[in-house]
Task: structure prediction
Amino acid sequence: MAAQSEDRPYTLADPVAPLVRRVLARNPSPFTYTGTQSYIVGDGESVAVIDPGPDDAEHLNALVGAIGDARVAAICCTHTHRDHSPAAAPLAGITGAPVIGCAPLTLEDDGPRADAAFDPGYRPDRVLGDGEAITGDGWTLVGVETPGHTSNHVCFALPESGALFTGDHVMGWSTSVVSPPDGDMAAYMASLTKLYEREEDRIYFPAHGPAVEKPRQLVRGMIGHRKQRERQILRQIGEGRRLITEMVPHMYKGVDERLWPAAGRSVLAHLIDLEQRGEVARSDHEWRIAR
Ligand SMILES: [Zn+2]
Result:
């Protein structure tokens, strides 16, 4: 972990790496830790803003102050949860910058994929595909598609600093919530493996919590943790707990109970993944071993 202070005041732009400054929004919660961290990339004539955050006047003012006289070449969103993208439109209005990053969620699938956590107003000027780049004065941002936490999640690599902006895909302080139907555990695991195979990233800057200085080690640990959860779920079913609401209190003993509903969503995501692999089956809300 980077030696970043966790008691930073809001509204200040902290330099956290060459070319990277961080502005913390005042939206702390059990899901956002100390709040959403927006990053400003570039120290020359043009900058990019990653995850502008919630549409909050104090945070917008802080971003505008930190941008100063620089031209904003791009406002980049990792995904469209409400703590990440709603400030994109007002910031674009103030700066004239294009919104370039994740795709808007496709809602025409079987049933609603978007719940109250999503920002339905997100309208990108350009979707940054995997491997596509945006360039500015002394910096490049490359899209790294990482579906799983949400279907539209994308990370941004900054090769000049060996940095990867990981949004909510990989965070040091907590595991990522994977909530079906938009969240997808099989996709999430594939996206973890994808990051593990990227040896060029020396530091991660997540949207919440401290920077991660040994990123591949953390990602390997997370893959192991998810596999362990999967085994734990199979054991729960084996011991006769068929409902997610029966499994969660056993699996998440000692975890803040406010997080149990979200934990239940992650258990469901694992079960769907196991179901697709033929390991478990369900009738209504009851799960059983399929083999
Ligand atoms: Zn999120």
